[in-house]
Amino acid sequence: MKLILSRKINSALTVFLLYISFCFAEFYFARGAIAYSMASAGSIYSSKIFSNIIFAFFIGGALPFAFYEIVTGFIFKGLRRKLGAVTDDMRYALRFYYFASNVVIGLISLLYFISPLISVYGEIFVPFVCTGVFFALYLKYVCSHCVEKSLTAFVLMQCGSVYLIFYGISTILKIFGVM
């Protein structure tokens, strides 16, 4: 909490660490998607760079990270009208909570290497549950440290509905294999 409140970590560093955490959380599935696409494309299109584990690591987090940044950019810009400059603190804090969530998701996804069968359910349920827990902690933090008491209900309603919409779209994209 003190780390977030003091804002001693540069915002660019928090964005970079958040991207790395998205890469870690999505690595298992990106590795599988790249392997599948290389196998279906045949040996004509295969190359060492595309089958590289490091490539899968960095590409796996690119789309979810971009989706996260675009959505949160619009949301906090919309909240800025009612809440003012406190939205900058809220966005800064959200990166820490998503970072922690992604690290937990990434650690759990390491279990998929041992038993790939659980990855079928883990791809959808684990991210939703982990981010749900960390998002609830984020809302508790925001309501107690950033927002006035009179605006607490507004923030809970807006942020909670955005979270559900964000994960609804994310789940649909995962089902169709886009993310």
What does this structure look like?
The protein is mostly helical and 179 residues long. It contains eight helices and no strands. The protein has helices at residues 2-6, 11-41, 53-60, 62-83, 86-109, 111-114, 119-145, 152-175. Helix 4 (62-83) runs antiparallel to helix 5. The longest helix is centred in the first third of the chain and has 31 residues, at 11-41. It is elongated. It starts with a helix and ends with a helix.
Question: In DSSP terms, counting alpha (H) and pi (I) runs of 4 or more, how many helices?
Answer: 8
Radius of gyration: 18 Å
Spans of at least 5 consecutive residues whose pLDDT stays below 50 are none
Could you state the order of secondary-structure elements as H and E?
HHHHHHHH
| Structural class assignment | mainly alpha
Strand fraction equals under 5%
**Ends: how far apart?**
31 Å
Main beta sheet: none
How would you sum up the global shape? elongated
Overall pLDDT confidence: 84
* Residues in helix, %: over 70%
**How many β-strands, per DSSP?**
0
Short description:
This protein has helices spanning 2-6, 11-41, 53-60, 62-83, 86-109, 111-114, 119-145, 152-175. It has 179 residues and is mainly α.
Topology (elements, then pairings):
Blueprint: H1 2-6, H2 11-41, H3 53-60, H4 62-83, H5 86-109, H6 111-114, H7 119-145, H8 152-175
Helix pairs in contact: 2-3, 2-5, 4-5, 4-8, 5-7, 7-8
